[in-house]
Amino acid sequence: MQSVEVGFALLAALAASRGPLMLRDLAAAADMSAAKAHRYLVSFQRLGLVVQEPASTRYDLGPAALSLGLAALTRLDAVRMARERLALLAPRIGHTLALAVWGNHGPTIVHWQESPLAQPVNLRLGDVMPLLTSATGRCFAAWMCPRGDGCPHPRIDAMIDEELRRLASLPRAQRHADVPTTRADVRALLAEVRARGMARVVDTLQPGVGGFCAPVFDSDARMVLGVVALGPAASFDTAWGGAVEAPLREMARQLSRDLGWREGERTAATPAPEAATA
Predict the structure, then answer these.
(1) Does residue 74 have a pLDDT over 50?
(2) Which of 5, 71, 96, 150 is deepest in the core (most CB within 10 A)?
(3) Segments in the chain forming alpha helices (H)
(4) How far apart are CA 30 and CA 24, in angstroms?
């Protein structure tokens, strides 16, 4: 049992990291020698819990760790309840639906529901969505950073800054008008998401793709889940109050009520990402 607890310190260090780590840094984060850490990592690699990047030799969480994290997340009551409702909503909307939760690295897709009529969209389970160019990311950012004067979570501030730098580096011809490029733009965007009660994107995540994300709140008025609809913009109704947005909003609102949220109650900031799981 002690050996398992010692080894888990390495997995916990990787989960807390924002990216792959060198052996020496990973060992230091887990408070053990590099030689001892390496012995555990060899075993974890065989199990698929850890992978080593060939070029950089850095270590990161492997596919088995992702599977365990997703399995744990999908056992949450909110996810279980939402999955049951997506199966009923998908034929009505006729487009792909998904569920997202806040994971260690951001908004993470944990369930996928395709309508028989839906055209395929290039996203996968476990994908982490960008905060500024996806409806999912905008929705989480809006309720994790509910104040107009900044975000209470330094890590999310850093993620937003990183995305802004990447977006600013794009050629002007590749910058979509709906994508923020300054902090003032971000504040205005997230304020609009909160005012609308959900997030919408058209062409910003993928060219020719539209999407909505509706927040689901728990009894503490915290966002615990994002319900996502997306599809080709040519056939996907992107209108507010339209054939996609209205039933998606109502489904998320009813699920929030069933989780104990009281309509009209002021929503609270989602807990810091360091306290989340994935």
Answers:
(1) yes
(2) 96
(3) 2-16, 23-29, 34-47, 63-74, 77-93, 135-144, 154-168, 183-196, 245-258
(4) 10
